[in-house]
Amino acid sequence: MTEAVVSAPVAPPGADTSRAPGRAPRAKGAPGRLRALDGLRLVAALMVAAYHYGGRGGAVADAWGSSPARQFPTLHTLFAYGCLGVQIFFVISGFVICMSGWGRSLTSFFASRAARLLPAYWVAVVLVTAVFALPVVAYDAVSPSDALVNLTMLQQPLGADRVLGVCWTLWVEVRFYALFALCVVLPGASRRRVLLFCAGWLLASALAQAAHEPLLDLVLMPEYAPFFVGGIGLYLLHRDRRDAHAWGIVAAGFLVGQHHAVRELWNAADPHAFAHRTTLGIVLVVALGFAAVGAVALGLLDRVNWRGLTVAGALTYPFYLVHEHLGWVVIHVLHRGLRVPAAATFALTAAAMLALAWVLHRYVERPLTPWLRTVLTRTH
Prior knowledge:
The protein is mostly helical. It contains 16 helices and no strands.
């Protein structure tokens, strides 16, 4: 969710270059930029947007003036699966964080993450807070104190109201970064260390689930760990597609991940559910997410190298930040205010949020991200 630039050499500086006999590294001429992964990130973001606009009830029903199930009698069932775009994001994040963290110092790693996350996030928090404070907007704004706490990204553990509905996923990402930094980046990335990290985290997260200990759940994130682990395993396959241990890590990540996804999202037994997701449907979407990232990792999509995908990747994070709450405001104006049909409102709202994302990328991220990275890596 947070990576706009997906580029790195196949064997980054500091990489573990030892290989067992019989392993075939990727070709040296393989493209350094994985533009297909950029495009996949935007697809995952649009899945989440489809869920927020037409795949759930709650506040969005106020924007439409009725349940989205009435606005989209057939598609609302498919839109309900869009929430799984988050799990696909986590797989991509595991891949990219392992790639970008390999060979980096701890200072450089944290500076890169902070510079990538914070500028657009800060502006999105201020923007949504300001819009929701307008008298003409029918949604409750958070208190000034909670809005300020939101700027730290620590609103969830501190129990403050969230300005951005999607920011819970950033809290998950931040905890992943911390685990990866302490266990892999700090001692120095190597294939062996990454494999041990993945196996240890997956096992520890399963034990945490069995222990029913809130602190262990908070640190080890049992329901999300398999997706990050699967993504890391896919990056190891990107480095060496014959790595049997990496294949095992990916398989374990998928098998445990789909279990958690079904456990959290299967709702066929709930008579009041907005839309009934099936077990098969959930497993299929998770499998397609793993397969898509796997196709990138194995070089099957190397020819998908269009420059426009770079733009798609750049827009994904700011779009993800603003699309939900500001999207509701746009839906209300278009559908209830201007009587635009539901399908056109859906498309125009997504387009408006992509346009806003471009503005945030062009005028916030591009100037501030490199500046903040330089500030945070400067030694005194």
